[in-house]
Amino acid sequence: MSQEPRVESREMENPKFTHPNPKSRARIPLFADEPQTLAELFRQAFKKHNRADALNYKKDGKWRKISSDEMCERAENIALGLYSIGLRKNDKAAILAANSPDWTIADAGCQFAGIVDVPVYTTLAETSVCYIVNDSGAKAFFIQDNATFERMAKIFPECKSLEKLIFFDGEGVTAENAISLAELEKRGADLKAEKPNLIEQLAKAIEPHDVATLIYTSGTTGEPKGVMLAHGNIISNVIDVGEKYSFSEKDLPLSVLPLSHVFERGAMYLYIFNGMSVYYAESIDKVADNLREVRPTIFVGVPRIFEKVYAKAKLKAAQDSSLKEKIFDWAIEIGKEFALKSAENEEISFFLGVKHTIADKLVFSKFREFFGGRLRFCITGGAALSNDIFLIFNGAGVLIMQGYGLTETSPVVTSSNPIDVKLGTVGKPIRNVEVRIAADGEVEVSGPNVMLGYYNKPDATRDVFTEDGWFKTGDIGEIEADGFLKITDRKKELFKTSGGKYIAPSPIEQMIKSSRFVNQVVLIGNDRKFPAALIVPNFEQLESYAKHEGLSLKTPKDFCESERIVKLIEKQVSDLTKDLSKFEKVKKIALLEEEMTVEGGELTPTLKVKRRVVDEKYKRVIDKIYTE
Fold first, then answer.
1. In this structure, are residues 175 and 165 in contact, taking their beta carbons and an 8 Å threshold?
2. 3-state class percentages of the chain: helix first, strand second, coil last, to nearest 5
3. Distances (CA, A) of 348 to 126, 334, 549
4. What's the pLDDT tens digit per position in 368-395?
5. Angle (CA) 346 401 221, round 5°
6. Distance (Å, rounded) from C-alpha 33 to C-alpha 596?
7. Could you give the 3-state DSSP secondary structure of residue 230?
8. Quick one: CA dihedral 366, 372, 378, 383, positive or negative?
9. Residue 448 · residue 27 · CB < 8 Å
10. Are the beta carbons of 237 and 265 closer than 8 angstroms?
11. Closest to 338 in 3D by CA, of 259, 406, 413, 392
12. pLDDT in tens, 430-446
């Protein structure tokens, strides 16, 4: 009878650093058999919710399903496959691929084996990917396909720690040290037959304080930092964030945001833990089609998605006829008034109720149809949601719950929910999480969700914790009398004019973005006499306006150089910011022809503006604003 091998473990090559926040490693259990690690979470979910359609994806025009049993077997085989190629507890495995069941199952496999996975955004440049692989010391690299490999091929000779490339789709792959996911799973199955108790040993060797994943921040300033999230950090968030929601096996979520983002990753664990049937969107371009097909009950998205849905609905109304545009605008105002009164618990008058019913039939029903018609609520985070968008969608019967958090907090700190929701806030702290405001207005957090620290960066870790162990978020905010948190801006994004006045750009940008003619806006003015704005117009809306006004403007360049258009947007900015203090008011604008994108370098993968990059890229435009 063969003897089982001793389960080997490698120490995480973390700096010797005592974590300043003891609460990050402890929480109040909700129930006796609460999972302590992600391996336990998966195991419990597979046993309790034995679904035939746990994961669903589209291939060759048809939706295919993966059962809980198949998912469990594949995850265990991946764990053992990784063991068979030499990876041990605390070794790292990077993942660079689009959302798919393979992504989720590979992640589960890593968690069963105690291997730290390192998600990589598919939009990152080669140099950033190389930095992450080298900084993390990843030994294995899950890659989507040969096309992804070829795009990154030049970095691999520089990635000295890599020992094995694992392709989700192995077709056409000739890379050295490559193996397909299917082959890795076969090796794992063979090892399971030989050593049937090994998978149990690997899973039991994992502790709640062990690092589960290393997630690199987007790096709006400086180089990315690897956030060490322990199993206990993530488990606490998955369980506590759902306390005031009625999640159930009947819910159908559509996965849209990248799984490399901690927000979507945490949502995926929540879906699986609650026994939901998860559907993966084919791509960002196919989301609208997939929403109609899947008809989800839950939709998690960033504010930009809702902004674009509204902008397209408004554009369609404008293109149909001037009458339909007027009806649309009337309905939106009725919906906002209705939602505002509902949010503030004010009585809805009979006449407002009648008008809302009419608006619902003419306009709002189409909003709900866009999301499939049976949506219970949307959950949003990652950036600020404007009050206008909140009121528009809630007034239309598409309930949006806004949360707040960071990668460093696993991620959720506060959340609105069906019980606690308040306009202009990001909800109340979730169970077991505490929030306080420092003397300078910075939001500070304590709780079991707070990261262990930044990988290989003890100094950077110390910098983000207070002397008494609270995590400094870098956001400016205030806690209202009823316990709701309001975020006003990023601490690092505050700028000072040459006159010594401090300005928070985000609230002003939100005001300007409420114009239908504005797509993107970045406020500038650090060390300048006054604030100004770089604006990317909504060219589709401008085309509709030009047609209505009889203007012969066709290209983005035509619009940006048109004095008539510049004056139109200047007036919009002036009207929308009329209540600001004199020193906060935007004195000048410049229109930009090209949208700011992740690929262009102006946005992070989570769609936050890299202000330093914008300042450098548009230096000539900015200098011209202040010299004319």
1. yes
2. 40, 20, 40
3. 55, 11, 38
4. 999 999 999 999 988 888 999 999 999 9
5. 125
6. 48
7. strand
8. negative
9. yes
10. no
11. 392
12. 999 999 999 999 999 99
Tokens 């203007």 map to which residue?
Answer: 551
Rounded mean pLDDT of the chain? Answer: 92
**Number of neighbours of residue 285 by Cβ within 10 angstroms:** 8
Partners of 223 in the β-ladder: none
Classify residue 420 by burial, with Cβ atoms within 10 Å: 0-12, 13-18, 19+.
Answer: middle
Residues in the chain: 628
CA 478 to chain centre: 23
β-strand pairing of 442-446 with 434-437? antiparallel
Q: Which two tokens stand for residue 362?
A: 């003419």
DSSP string, 273-322: HTT--EEE-S-GGGHHHHHHHH--SEEEE-HHHHHHHHHHHHHHHHHH-H
Q: What is the 3-state secondary structure (H, E, C) of 489-551?
A: EEHHHCEECCCCCEECHHHHHHHHHCCCCEEEEEEECCCCCCCEEEEEECHHHHHHHHHHHCC
Is-cis flag, bond preceding 411, omega within 30? yes
* Cα–Cα distances in angstroms (integers) from residue 245 to residues 254, 398, 432, 458, in the given order: 17, 16, 16, 37
Q: In what order do the strands lie in the sheet with 453-454?
A: 178-180, 164-167, 140-143, 92-96, 116-119, 211-216, 226-230, 453-454
Q: Rounded to 10 degrees, what is the CA torsion of 608, 611, 612, 614?
A: 100
Lowest mean pLDDT of 53-62, 399-408, 599-608, name the range. 599-608
Residues 6+ apart with CB under 8 A from 188: 76, 77, 78, 79, 80, 81, 82, 83, 84
